[in-house]
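4.2 Preliminary Data

To establish feasibility before requesting continued support, the project team ran the inverse folding procedure on a target of 188 residues. The structure was first converted into the token representation described in Section 3, and no sequence information of any kind was made available to the design step. The complete token record follows.
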């Protein structure tokens, strides 16, 4: 009877180890998914800025700040129903952002097509063909506005890169310190 109990305990320990290992693997996968999802949302935000089409409402800005926090930490505190709601909301925000990028790209394509047709003299509209000088002036002013927007984004990205580089150096120094402390403790 004692042998049977030891066997059951050993099997249960093995099962616990397997479950802990699987939990660790699942956490690692969730970390990767979360990181790439956050990167997708950030890339979409930059694209929307690039197209000068970002019309984020307050709930999207709130969600963006939530996305920068650790989603996994939040996962542990939500019950199943709340988790489903939060994930659905996050998916909805991402879908809306992608839709805005597609719309902005479509508007840009239509504008470029209109300019091309006007320059070729093949305007298809029901009205008379627009004056080429007018089309070129309008395109020039749009390009200048886009250039200013790109310069502002470039400055923001440089600032973000600088901040992240400093943070990376700080974390690298902390890691080096911990590694040194770890090595010292092993040598004692």
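Position-by-position output of the design step:
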């Amino acid at each position: 009877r004692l042998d049977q109990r030891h066997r059951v305990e050993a099997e249960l320990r093995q099962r616990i180890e397997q479950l802990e290992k699987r939990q660790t693997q699942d956490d690692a996968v969730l970390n990767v998914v979360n990181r790439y999802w956050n990167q997708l949302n950030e890339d979409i935000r930059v694209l929307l800025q690039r197209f000068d089409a970002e019309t984020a409402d307050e709930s999207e800005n709130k969600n963006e700040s939530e996305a920068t926090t650790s989603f996994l930490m939040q996962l542990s505190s939500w019950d199943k129903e709340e988790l489903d709601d939060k994930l659905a909301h996050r998916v909805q925000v991402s879908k809306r952002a992608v839709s805005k990028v597609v719309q902005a790209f479509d508007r840009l394509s239509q504008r470029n097509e209109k300019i091309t047709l006007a320059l070729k003299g093949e305007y298809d509209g029901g009205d008379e063909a627009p004056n080429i000088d007018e089309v070129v002036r309008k395109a020039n002013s749009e390009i200048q506005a886009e250039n200013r927007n790109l310069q502002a984004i470039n400055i923001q990205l440089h600032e973000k890169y600088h901040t992240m580089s400093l943070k990376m150096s700080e974390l690298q120094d902390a890691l080096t310190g911990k590694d040194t402390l770890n090595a010292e403790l092993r040598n004692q």
